[in-house]
């Protein structure tokens, strides 16, 4: 089985973009001397970790969520390299988990982040075959707001804009394309122009410490507006079939079931089966919901 080193640079093996499954199959492996805890939703393109791999069903022992001041939250397209780097840091932080006994994790985390950053910037610059426009959308909070409650997050995913320190707490990509590698292909729209009017959300993730603050909803709301501005009329997202929190979120955001991955394909790719969800954003005057 091919092991992914980054959600973007991979021997196509897909973990749908919203693998927020409350049930995970964990296994350990070693790559180039580094040990990992991998779950089957370590995502390449199509998978969203809106609730990241850390989102699980609520139980009596689940800690209370850290509440944020939503008036300080900004959700915008990332325009500069330092913002894209911070987004890459959050994705690696969310999609990969080193084993506790692993040595030199900082060096390898930096390596993974560099790979993710390189792939992300290439896609946004239009250098990846098969893609039209690609936009990275970040949810950010002031450093002072995050450092008091999640210091590791604040230092890992920080960047500066206009001399103000900010932290990326959520991120996703909007991809204008016919299909994502190793994912179910959407059916709408059909005919000429589908390569411009069809889009997919991918690499959706929210910092585990700040989940259940509506960050995923805010990201998708902004993504729908950006997608519509790109000329996309039919927006898709992939989600693990047993990922109830993610499915509820997407349904709340107006997505509905269109298709599902054949069982044989999921077994071949060694991952949970995917659902393909769709929403029409062409006629809505308020895609922000």
UniProtKB/TrEMBL annotation:
**Which superkingdom does the taxonomy of this entry point to?**
Eukaryota
Concerning CDD domains, the annotation shows: NAT_SF (cd04301)
Q: Where is each N-acetyltransferase domain found?
A: 198-274
List, in alphabetical order, the Gene Ontology terms for molecular function in this entry.
acyltransferase activity, transferring groups other than amino-acyl groups
The record's GO CC annotations read: chloroplast
**Gene3D superfamilies listed in its UniProt record:** 3.40.630.30
One Pfam family cited in the UniProt record for this chain: Acetyltransf_1
Q: Please report the name of this protein according to its UniProt entry.
A: N-acetyltransferase domain-containing protein
